[in-house]
Amino acid sequence: MKAPFRRILSWLGVVSALSWSTAAAAQQPGVIQGRITSQFGGAPIADVQVSIAALGLGTLSDADGTYRITGVPAGEHLIETQRIGYSRSTQTVTVAAGQIAQVDFLLTDQAMELDPLVVTGQGSEISRRRLSTNIEVISTEAIESSSATRLDQLLQTALPSVQVRLSSGQPGASSVTRGRGPVSVSRSTTPVIYVDGVRVDNLNGLAELSLNTSGGRRNGTQTSSIADIPLENIERIEYVPGGAATTLYGSDAANGVIQIFTKKGSPGTSQLSFESEIGVEGPVEKAFFFPQTADLLYQNGLTQQYRLSGSGGNDRVTWSFGGSVQDREGYRIDNNASQSYQARTGMTALLTDDLQYSASFAFGYNHYERSRDGNAGGYTPLWLLEGGRIFAVGFNNKLNESSAEELAELQDYLAEAERLQNYRVNVSRFQMSHQFAWEARDDLNFNATLGLDHRSSNERGIETNEFLIFTGSAPEGTDDRGSIESYDRRFLGLTMEAGGQHRFETGALSLVTSVGGQLFRDDDAQSERVALNVRDGSETVRGAGTTQADDFFLQLVNYGVYAQQNWGLYDKYFLDIGIRADGNSAFGDEVGLQVYPKLGFSYDLGSEDFFQDAVPASLISNLRLRGNYGVAGNFPPPFANDRTVSFASYLGQQSAGYGQPGNDDLRPEKTHTLELGGELQALSGRMTLQFNWYDAKTKDALFTVPLPPSTGEGSQLRNVGEITNSGIELRVVATVLRRDGLSASLNASLNTLNNEVTDAGGSPVFGISGFSSSTIETVVQEGWPVGSLRGTASTLNPDGTIASTELLQYLGNPLPDRFGSLGLEVLVGDNLRFNADADWQTGAQLHSFNRQFRYLYGIDDPELPDELLAQNTGSIRGNWLDLTNFFVEDTDYLRVRNISVNYTLPQGAFGGWSDGIELGLASQNPLGWWTSSFDPESDHSGASSQGGASVGGFNYGSDPSPRSFLATIRVRF
């Protein structure tokens, strides 16, 4: 009996094992893999997001267009592709247990992706179609195809609704950035910038303590905190305007938000890329009144840059790194060089199946040589030449009438004076971001971000006795008037943020709910060390005859919580509601949490059956309407709410006096924005049109209000003003040619701007930049645009004599009423690409102090009436300040920013040692047309205090941006 029983047990074991293995095989997940190529030309498409939304699974295609999704349960699934610049595609696939399903995609390019996944609008990834506002996205391809070497150069034409102007050609100098007009008169116009979720230093203008190489309004040569954010390793950039940035950014969002996302790598074969760029840069001769200026002061300087990058990974860990070294000889003789060293790395890791960690680290070091310009006084070469002041050191100021011998002598003088200058700026920057994403359930995820930005700069200027003697600022034999100025600025920003998102779907209804909180802290410490009576050859302050020091410190803490919900019905009706509450260390003691609401809608009209029946898809394939109302803020300057005592040195002792009166009711400025817009896709996806109309009103604007003289106290920031900005934003992207082996696309944008200070709250007129009321300044005055030019205006009699002169008159508006961009891309086969982009503006005015000084110093002005010149023929014209209005000019322009041609050698042309070789030629700033007699971007702009509004307005001895020609070779392994 035992043997049969044992046989029965054995058979039962075999049957159980077979049953278990069959059940295990049935539960074993499968794999979906395939290749993604372009329908136009068949080239592989990298970085396509391939996902199974219902399961929360996905991956990115690699450089060969291949992808692989593991862990897919057996059954039928809908797989979807998405990538900016290509149409979406879906396929249904049945996955067998433990098997591999092959699914290939053939994508068609389209003028512009209307429905990419974005982060800036919601805190976590969400389809843009669900949002009530437009979010601009700059893709990896747009960044890589641009010949821009600075972030603000890239933004000039890549963000169609934002105007970025490089106000000086000195290396690393700051730019003026504005989107929907200046919403404040006391805060910067630059959008807030985030890198991998971390708020970064945004002082793109005047520092409180800094090297005075441009005079009192020295923004033209301030070091930009945007310029030293490297382009290497950036994956994409998102921009959201102020009104729509309400919920996530609250008290810091009135100027909009720029989000930068860096590369973290993707699963697949490791890739390595090396790029070498070499070229020359030189002056734009048209920018000068005297053609001789370009020959006397500028040169064709060598520039070279080398980049190395790599990426790779697997299903659990991905990585990416990038680095560059740049060396510029400079286009200004002797002292315009710069060097830059950048490195950035990023990675992602699946710590568990549900928890992902991503991080990025970056370090950069920049060295810039500087020269005196603008209103610095003394030896300021552009003022001496273009302003006609060169006679003060013994030369003929009419350069066009100078002999060859005079010009040769002048060139020797300038070369030696430039050699003796010693001004330089060093900037080092470290950025770090740590992010955690937890997929708690298929419909619930949480994220957290912790990071910092540390930026340290040192500006140093040494004026030797030799320099002072040579330039005529000191007599022969002087040995005790040398000086050393050294300024340090250390910025440390800390960001902490956490949030969660829940997705719910039932039938036709879908809900996306987001909640979160954010805290950031900024520390800005500045110090000054000045040494006087310094011997020549000294490099340090120690040992000087006299030393003095100063310091400056700002600290700001902002914290807020937010909640927003997005409803969707039938995937075509969407409602977006959000609210944020903020606290801030700069708010007054009587001010509690400040609330910022948002309400918006989006309507996918193009998906309606009646629309599709009435309009052929080949004519209009997509039409979406949207609108929103939101309130965004600008917090006050740090410590502006505090009552202070002012101390000064008097007879070797401290003397106390009234400082800042303080304001317990100090609140943030709040910009209320109503926006309506939409987008349509037409002609089988070949053309996309975006339209926005906005009306923004800043209430509680911070104006400087003087207290009654009887109090003995000075002025104080108060929430008394009102500023309005309104306009339209149009953008068209069209594929105008598409045939075998050839395609061409165009893009163009048009923006209008109407800005006005509608209520000054009783505050008197005050200046935010410029010089003085007797010369010219930009002011805040009720009924005028922010930063309007104000100065003396005269009218003339027919015989050229002055009929009347009036002081403090409106002379112009430095803000354009229209601006936009243009772009062209041509693809020939899979190997040859041509790009060109430009931007333009109309309706703005600038004042030229160069022209006014030339008139003062006896140089005839071709723009002035002959009768007036005949009345004033001396070497010094005493009525020059009565005629300021004659030196204000329209600054309409069209400037071609970049032209580039890139050719990818055929695969295998150099054997199998390389995955691809790309050759490129590019030119930056090659062409320009403008109505003014000077370069309209050589703008000696500035602000009265750190963080103040900078609108530009003055052409005054500032280097114009150079023109460059570059050759590039990029090798991929």
UniProtKB/TrEMBL annotation:
Domain (TonB-dependent receptor-like beta-barrel): residue spans on this chain: 417-906
Biased amino acid composition, Polar residues: 166-177
Membrane topology: Multi-pass membrane protein
InterPro entries per UniProt: Beta-barrel_TonB, Beta-barrel_TonB_sf, Carb-bd-like_fold, Plug_dom, Plug_dom_sf, TonB-dep_rcpt-like
A Pfam family reported for this protein in Swiss-Prot or TrEMBL: CarboxypepD_reg
Coiled-coil boundaries: none
Subcellular location: Cell outer membrane
Keyword annotations of the record: Cell outer membrane, Ion transport, Membrane, Receptor, Signal, TonB box, Transmembrane, Transmembrane beta strand, Transport
Region (Disordered) residue spans: 166-186, 936-956
Source organism, top-level taxon: Bacteria
Domain TonB-dependent receptor plug: 129-257
Cleaved signal peptide residues: 1-26
Entry similarity comment: Belongs to the TonB-dependent receptor family.
PANTHER family tied to this protein: COLICIN I RECEPTOR-RELATED, TONB-DEPENDENT OUTER MEMBRANE RECEPTOR
Protein name, entry field: TonB-dependent receptor
Lineage, opening ranks: Bacteria, Pseudomonadati, Gemmatimonadota, Longimicrobiia, Gaopeijiales
